[in-house]
Amino acid sequence: MARGAGMDAPTDRFGRPLRNLRVSVTDRCNLRCHYCMPEEQYVWLPREELLTFEELSGLVGIFTDLGVDKVRLTGGEPLLRRGLPLLVRMLAQNPRIRDLALTTNGVLLAGHAQALREAGLHRLNISLDTLRPDRFQHLTRKDNHAQVLEGIAAARQAGFRGLKFDTVVVRGANEEEITDILEFGKKAEAEVRFIEYMDVGGATQWSPEKVFSRAEMLEVLGRRYGRIEPVVEQGSAPAERFLLPDGTLFGIIASTTTPFCRRCDRSRLTADGIWYLCLYAQDGIDLRQPVRRGISRDQIRTTIVSAWQKRNDRGAEERRALGSRGVFVPIQQLRANPHLEMHTRGG
Ligand code: SAM
User: For the chain, give me the number of helices (H) and strands (E)?
Assistant: First the structure.
């Protein structure tokens, strides 16, 4: 067991505590980003299998009893889940959650920001891969760039502080925009986090040549801004943070070239209640059946603890160790098992 914030969390085989839970509230998305959902057709989770808000918040409560204190709502696009602020309100009442965040593509945010804030959401991450409407359309196959910008403005208006912009940097797609996005982040008082293109399930167009690495990002930014200082931090956050000479902070999530499995305390619950201990795991643990069969909280807690104590996943490091690396999950396999998709697991 690891001590932290007054709670003993179970630890896995590498001593990593169970702290950080990502909850996917839907597998549906209103964008078709080339690095995540590039296909024409998808197999969706059956609606009757999606957990209700009561089931979700009950399960989250078991996790927080065990030491989870960071919860992120994601998807798919979480704002497509009808009535989401109600779930946020339920979770915000859980005093063990120290950090309650939401990751969104921003398209529907303008209409929800105020309600999310009032419901008690602490923080927002907004995906922002380009500042150019025509490029947005090309990258997402949708024409919603203006709505994303409106969503960002509405989030600030609603009083959200500490906004983060998540930018997946893909060679040949948007790599020359990274300084513009950083400048935009400064104006919007948001911390930008550049994410390396990952070969997660669903990234069926991934190839090593398209990965614009952390080293390359730092080189481009160094040329523009001069000396970039790494910020020395303890903790499990995926982003390494850096400081520009003018005091601007930004992050890089380098899961592809510099994985951080050794510090990874994240696990993921899908909208239909399957719990994954690693983004790259082939199998998950079904928590929906026990919940729906009325199995006691104590028994579910035991299932969770014993699975976590056996955890030895190091998915991103194992991928990096491969000599030659291509698409992780072939399309036929994704169609047969949508749980292998990033948009089902929650990014
Ligand atoms: N729809 C929401 C959004 O767009 O932020 C939440 C879900 S999305 C799957 C969560 C995050 O995963 C986004 O920041 C997205 O950019 C990231 N993501 C998806 N596929 C990725 C890939 N192949 N490599 C790196 N990041 C990826």
Answer: 12, 14
Q: What is the pLDDT of residues 168-226, one digit of tens each?
A: 999 999 999 999 999 999 999 999 999 999 999 999 999 999 999 999 999 999 999 99
Distance from the CA of 291 to the center of ligand 1, in angstroms? 28
Q: Is the CB of 195 under 6 A from ligand 1?
A: yes
Measure the CA–CA gap between 57 and 72, rounded to whole angstroms: 12
Best probe residue, ligand 1, of 342, 343, 344, 345 (max atoms within 8 Å of C-beta) = 342
Instruction: Enter the DSSP assignment of 64.
Output: H
Q: pTM higher than 0.90, yes or no?
A: yes
Q: Which atom of ligand 1 is nearest to the CA of 35?
A: 23
Separation between Cα atoms, residue 260 and residue 240, nearest integer Å: 10
Nearest by Cα to 276 from 329, 315, 327, 237: 315
Burial degree of 323 (CB within 10 A; 0-12, 13-18, 19+) = exposed
Q: Which atom of ligand 1 is nearest to the CA of 200?
A: 23
What amino acid is encoded at 164 in this protein? K
